[in-house]
């Protein structure tokens, strides 16, 4: 069934968008709630104006989201939790916990559905988590899960984990650079070896000792 979306429905369509949807979805959900209307000539005539309204709303939402990114930039979220053996948590860190911690930094409530966490975190460590602040602005933030009872304190433990991760990343970059450099050197050496004549052969354009002696006797 072809409909025009009168409101933006996450995962289905944007306001003013004309789409074909399942008839049951339209009749049972979209149409009764006023989220969409059948694509009649009159409604289609309104679609362009609806799209312009939605684009303007989206620009404003993106601008606001970029402001939130600025507030979160360079501020890892430190989650201090109770930890058992081998760094395993008593419980877990969920998108609700992360949304609450981010909201503390932003000074406003953040919907847990904006935290794109594939599964609950159950071990200490540094994690990259995506925040969907708007359709176009989806930054990655660092979440550092540490033992609340760490002897040096949760903040110091978090900083140590971050340093360890940075050092590991730097070491990996150096190792990859050396591997790449070594491969290039080997390739150059092999190429040079291919260019050199085999033992007993003369280079192109050169004269062997026997040829030189023969030419002299002539």
Describe what this molecule looks like in 3D.
With 218 residues, the protein is α+β, with helices and mostly antiparallel strands. The chain folds into 2 domains: 2-71, Ribosomal Protein L9, domain 1; 74-166, Roll (Ribosomal Protein L9, domain 2), CATH 3.10.430.100. It contains 5 helices and 9 strands. Strands 4-9-8-6 form a 4-stranded mixed sheet. Strands 2-1-3 form a 3-stranded antiparallel sheet, covered by helices on one side. A hairpin with an 8-residue loop joins strand 8 (125-131) and strand 9 (140-147). It is elongated.
CATH homology group of the largest domain = Ribosomal protein L9, C-terminal domain
Number of helices: 5
Please give the CATH architecture of the largest domain: Roll
**Strands ordered across the widest β-sheet:** 4-9-8-6
Q: Which outline best applies?
A: elongated
CATH class (first level) name of the largest domain: Alpha Beta
CATH topology of the largest domain: Ribosomal Protein L9, domain 2
How widely separated are the two ends?
Answer: 98 Å
Total domain units: 2
Round the mean pLDDT to the nearest integer and report it: 84
Q: Write down the Rg.
A: 32 Å
Helices and strands: which structural class? Answer: alpha+beta
């Amino acid at each position: 069934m072809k409909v025009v979306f009168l409101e933006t429905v996450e995962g289905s369509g944007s306001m003013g968008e004309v789409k074909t949807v399942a008839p049951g979805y339209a009749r049972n959900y979209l149409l009764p709630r006023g989220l969409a209307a059948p694509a009649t000539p009159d409604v289609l005539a309104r679609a362009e104006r609806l799209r312009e309204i939605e684009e303007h709303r989206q620009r404003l939402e993106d601008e606001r989201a970029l402001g939130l990114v600025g507030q979160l930039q360079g501020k890892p979220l430190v989650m201090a939790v109770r930890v058992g053996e081998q760094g395993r948590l008593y419980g877990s860190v969920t998108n609700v916990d992360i949304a609450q911690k981010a909201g503390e930094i932003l000074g406003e409530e953040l919907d847990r559905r904006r935290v794109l966490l594939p599964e609950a975190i159950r071990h200490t460590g540094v994690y990259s988590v995506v925040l969907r602040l708007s359709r176009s602005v989806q930054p990655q933030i660092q979440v550092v899960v540490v033992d609340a009872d760490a002897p040096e304190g949760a903040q110091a433990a978090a900083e140590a984990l971050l340093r360890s991760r940075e050092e590991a990343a730097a070491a990996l970059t150096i190792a990859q650079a050396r591997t790449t450099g070594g491969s290039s050197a080997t390739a150059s050496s092999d190429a040079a070896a291919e260019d050199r004549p085999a033992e007993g052969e003369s280079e192109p354009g050169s004269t062997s000792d026997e040829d030189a002696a023969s030419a002299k006797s002539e």
